[in-house]
Amino acid sequence: MSFGVRVFCPSISCLHELFSLVNNNCNFAHICRFFNFRISSEREDYKVVYYMHFGFRAPSNNLCILLSFPTGSINPTGRRLMDQLFFPLAIRNRWTFDRTCFTNRIHYDFSYSSRLASYSRFSIIPFLDVSNVQWSNRIIFVPRSFTFFHNVGIRINSCLSTFIHVGGKETSLLRYKFILYTAGGSIFLLMGVLGVGLYGSNEPTLNFEILVNQSYPMSLEIIFYIGFFIAFAVKLPIIPLHTWLPDTHGEAHYSTCMLLAGILLKMGAYGLVRINMELLPHAHSIFSPSLMIIGTIQIIYAASTSLGQRNLKKRIAYSSVSHMGFIIIGISSITDTGLNGAILQIISHGFIGAALFFLAGTSYDRIRLVFLDEMGGIAIPMPKIFTLFSSFSMASLALPGMSGFIAELIVFFGLITSQKYLLIPKILITFGMAIGIILTPIYSLSMSRQMFYGYKLFNISNSFFFDSGPRELFVSTAIFLPVIGIGIYPDFVLSLSVEKVEAILSNYFYR
């Protein structure tokens, strides 16, 4: 198949290779190996938009595209995928993505024909579009080029496609709302990318190492900052541009919710650090007090709103919006401790949020209920799901020994050690964070109580009321282990990014 189809239409390429396997009378194991992203040793090099300083390096029989840069004094090796700052985040994304793909696998006790039919129904259609996510995940965290915009579009399109295929019956208006918000934000991102790429140079460039040393007039830097901020405020999301997220989570399939919570939302935080903070430091210093206030309001508002949600997935979605407030505060503190805490919160919530949506989906598969006031009493027939859900709820409310606690604690220390803010603003922001921390266990424990305690579903005989199987246990355990590991030894993650964080702050804010 031609390179153009394989790169820009990976879904078509995926379908083409799948049909090739079927026509060659390959068995089901071959097809499963195909869906595990086969790696080929044969590679092809292509120059794409050379003057923009980036190209593609593609395995000839794989969907994954690695980024290649021209050699030179700035990049002597010709290849640089990511630096220390977001290396752990990229690893987290791949881990979450693999667990998401595994949630769509079928049980192996079917016959061959029924296995293939079931696999086609539940896995192939979402996978054809989720393959775009896998493709863009390899190069979404590239700091040396603004291919970021291209891959944001790919990932949004992938989530929209899976939302269309496996969403609920009332998703028509929600699709338009999803497109309106995400496409509208991408317009600001595109204008900002073109603006910084075309300004102040005889030759247009999107090379990040050149752009990061570019100086802009203060008024122009503020305009660029506002444009990028609007784009990333939709992706993160930041209030009041957050309303698309709970509605999307409320109707989407839980595998799509895992991608949204575990990967898509974190691109907004990545953009705030790598573009707004590093590329436009003076404007970020001006707007950081406003961001601090927005982050505090978001923590309290989203936590309060989550408590009033009847829909299980909407309640988890609003809790995600609340936790994003800690990321905003960490980025706005302009300290190495606060920024490291924000990065740790990005990684931590990626695991916890994806796991909660996964367990909410497994519960829905059994009881076919999504409203909390209709649930109750399923802890006895499904004790494993009850244990797993309770464990991740504890992680979400920042129980000591888990990643959520250490991330929020580091953000708090970053705030109180910041030299940018006076004592009274620090006290007020800390008080607001404390209110959010108090509200979090209220809605988390209330959610667990309404789901698992009581008698509404206790005495109902239903053949689908079976407990978690090996698939759910494997996925949940694979996500829970990093949550515990980071909570016990956070330096395992922080050691990968601390040097880059110090370099960003020392070069642009402390000089």
Task: Give a short overview.
By secondary structure, the chain is mainly α. 68% of the residues lie in helices and 2% in strands. The protein has 19 helices and three strands.
**Helix and strand composition category:** mainly alpha
Query: What is the overall silhouette?
Result: globular
Poorly predicted runs: 1-15, 26-84, 95-100, 104-145
In total, how many beta strands? 3
Beta-strand portion reads under 5%
Query: Largest sheet, order of strands side by side?
Result: 1-2-3
The helical percent reads 55-70%
Query: What is the CA-atom radius of gyration, in angstroms?
Result: 23 Å
The succession of helices and strands, N to C, reads: HHHEEEHHHHHHHHHHHHHHHH
**Count of individual domains:** 1
Distance between the termini: 52 Å
Chain-averaged pLDDT: 73
Largest sheet: 3 strands, antiparallel
Protein name: NADH dehydrogenase subunit 4
Subcellular location: Membrane
GO biological process, one term: electron transport coupled proton transport
InterPro entries: NADH_Q_OxRdtase_chainM/4, NADH_UbQ_OxRdtase, ND/Mrp_TM
Describe the structure in your own words:
There is one protein chain. It contains 19 helices and three strands. It has 511 residues and is mainly alpha-helical. The chain has one domain (82-139, 146-508). A three-stranded antiparallel beta sheet has the order 1-2-3, with no helix packed on it. Strand 1 (43-46) and strand 2 form a beta hairpin. The protein is globular. The model is unreliable at 1-15, 26-84, 95-100 and 104-145 (pLDDT under 50).
